[in-house]
Design goal:
mainly alpha
Length: 431
């Protein structure tokens, strides 16, 4: 049934396009009035708010025709009254109820619009209000009514949908810097940039075209302006806020942008990268303070709200050994590239990290302060899977420090447990 309603709503919109173009004014007005009545039925508004607004938006087909534009204004302005203005009426009624002398009159003086709205759940009302604002903006834009559009934006300055539509319209008209500043100002006025970007990605506008929300708008404008500074700022934000591998390529994009188009030397870029790494470290501290730690595993990739894969790539690419050591304090199982980077200036720390991942009792005397818990027997568990875990860590050790040091370590382990033939078999590759 829902699919049929969706299909019907789209067919009606196509019909109204034809009516607006070919029918005379009187006939077109009658058709639109019939559609508007159907859209404003209580059941439609309550159960199918999106289809209700799709029918209402069919009025926009009339906005571009001088002799029929009045019908579009009539339908959209009626929707504004029904879906937007009632809430302010309710607030005034609630305040009037405090006046004991007028309480009875206020209870009786309820408009038809308010009665209808009382039947609409909050979720449906949100859809009606969102698409009413969008339809109103489109009406003024299609009618070249700049005054109406400006007044709408002035009346609803916090509406993300309207601001996003305004930015898209600026881009369409070639006003890229204005669109950039509009997006930036909207972000700066918000409490949480990340949440606002998420809302922009999922609010029904420009689906799949805003992977970074408002920052995608800014990126698009900066690219169109060929402004290296503005684009670099966007890339820096992507790197700082990264928490999955999809944004790691912005490290290379930022480096190429500043080296090729920004004129930075290799040494200057390294200084920029070092400063960006410090900013990333501070951002990690903020994540630890204010974000819950959520770690998931999908396939071979781990995802943690406290990890920053773009920061990891920056550390490895620029061989920032100190930054790698600091970062790995919060990483349970550092990948090999980070271990190799730590080993550049802190080889003993890199060794300790690998050896600490060995099964309990592998090395006898603790090699790292977390290796042995107090009050436990420092003996290796005699199981094949335990030996395989040791072999895995030895391979990681070899990848960082080479075969010779690994061979010494492997002999030390098997000499500690000379009677464990299965252990010797698993470590044969390193002996």
């Amino acid at each position: 049934m829902l699919t049929l309603m969706d299909d019907l709503a789209m067919r009606v919109r196509c019909y109204m396009e034809n009516a607006a173009e070919f029918a005379d004014s009187s006939t077109a007005g009658k058709a639109l009035n019939t559609i508007a009545q159907a859209a404003n039925e209580k059941d439609m508004r309550q159960c199918e708010p999106l289809n209700s607004m799709l029918l209402i938006s069919s009025a926009l087909a009339f906005a571009q025709y001088d002799d029929k534009r009045i019908w579009a204004y009539d339908v959209i302005e009626n929707a504004i009254t029904r879906n937007l203005e009632y809430s302010f009426n309710e607030e005034s009624e609630e305040s009037d109820e405090d006046d004991e002398d007028d309480e009875d009159e206020d209870n009786e003086d309820t408009s038809e619009v308010d009665d209808e709205t009382d039947f609409i759940p909050d979720e449906s009302l949100h859809v009606l209000q969102l698409f009413t604002l969008m339809s109103a903006y489109d009406l003024y834009a299609l009618s070249n009514d700049d005054a109406g559009r400006e007044q709408l934006l002035k009346d609803y300055p916090e509406s993300m949908a309207l601001t996003l539509m305004n930015a898209a319209n600026m881009i369409h008209e070639g006003h890229l810097r204005s669109a950039y500043m509009l997006a930036q100002d909207f972000l700066l006025s918000s409490r949480d940039m990340e949440d606002v970007d998420i809302d922009a990605r999922h609010n029904g506008l420009l689906p799949d075209l805003l992977p970074h929300g408002w920052h995608t708008i800014m990126e698009c404008c900066a690219e169109g302006l060929n402004d290296v500074g503005l684009l670099a700022n966007v890339y820096r934000y992507y790197i700082l806020s990264c928490n999955d591998r999809s944004d790691t390529h912005y490290v290379s994009k930022l480096r190429n942008l500043l080296r090729i188009y920004g004129g930075l030397s290799a040494e200057e870029w390294h200084d920029v990268a070092d400063g960006l790494a410090r900013d990333c470290a501070r951002n990690i501290i903020d994540r630890i303070k204010y974000q819950p730690e959520i770690t998931t595993k999908g396939g071979t990739q781990r995802h943690s709200s406290w990890r920053n894969p773009a920061y990891e790539k920056l550390i490895v690419d620029e061989r920032l050994s100190d930054a790698a050591l600091t970062y790995c304090v919060m990483v349970d199982y550092p990948p090999l590239p980070l271990l190799r980077t730590i080993a550049i200036e802190h080889p003993e720390s890199a060794k300790s990290i690998i050896l600490d991942a060995m099964p309990h009792g592998t090395m006898g005397t603790p090699v790292f302060r977390f290796t042995v818990e107090r009050g436990t027997n420092n003996t290796l568990t005699a199981r094949r899977n335990t030996y395989q875990q040791i072999a895995k860590q030895l391979r990681r050790f070899a990848a960082v420090f080479g075969d010779e040091e690994t061979r010494v370590l492997a002999h030390e382990i098997v000499e500690r447990y000379p009677n464990l033939n299965a252990l010797r078999e698993e470590l044969a590759f390193a002996l």
